[in-house]
Amino acid sequence: MGVFDFVKEAGAKIGIGDTKEEKAQAASEEAAKEAAVREKKRRTAKVKRDAQIKKSADVKAKAVAEDKAEAAEARAASQDKSDTMEVYLKSMGFGDLDVRLRGSVATVIGEVADQATREKIILALGNSQGIDQVRDYIKIAVEEPESEMYVVQRGDSLSKIAKEVYGDAMKYPAIFEANKPMLKDPDLIFPGQVLRIPAAN
Q1: Which pLDDT score, from 0 to 100, does residue 86 have?
Q2: Is 143:113 a contact under the CB 8 Å cutoff?
Q3: Which fold has domain 148-201?
Q4: What pTM does this model have?
């Protein structure tokens, strides 16, 4: 057994192994290949990133477009409902009024002859399905005191309400008359409905 020393690169001279130049050439080629692979990966990543950015931008643009379309539909639906409410009020004989709906809030603008008409308009709107609040910008030609408002409870009837507020159940026609044309029948009232209660005569 022994230790053998060899001259480095000597094998290349006799056809075994690579020379320094060949190794340098191979290393250079390998580095070029690795650089090409890195560049290809970088380009692929950039293409993916650009596609994601475009997709994200497309998604955002689509979301914005959908939001705008939904808002336009909501405005159109609100306008349709506003127009319907205006026709409804006109059919009850309240004249031309401007009704604007925003969600469950109705805003009414116009001018009427008296306080009773103003209150009836507010009640007609407020007792409509889907309306939680009425904002009143109605001018009155003749100022009068406001009526008391009453929220119908379960089990109420106009005669029961008349007994409670006037002390006489037979005065229910005064409440019925004060709430026409919204009320068509003195026996048809429902819980949650708001009624005008005129001052006792």
Answers
A1: 84
A2: no
A3: Membrane-bound Lytic Murein Transglycosylase D; Chain A (3.10.350)
A4: 0.59
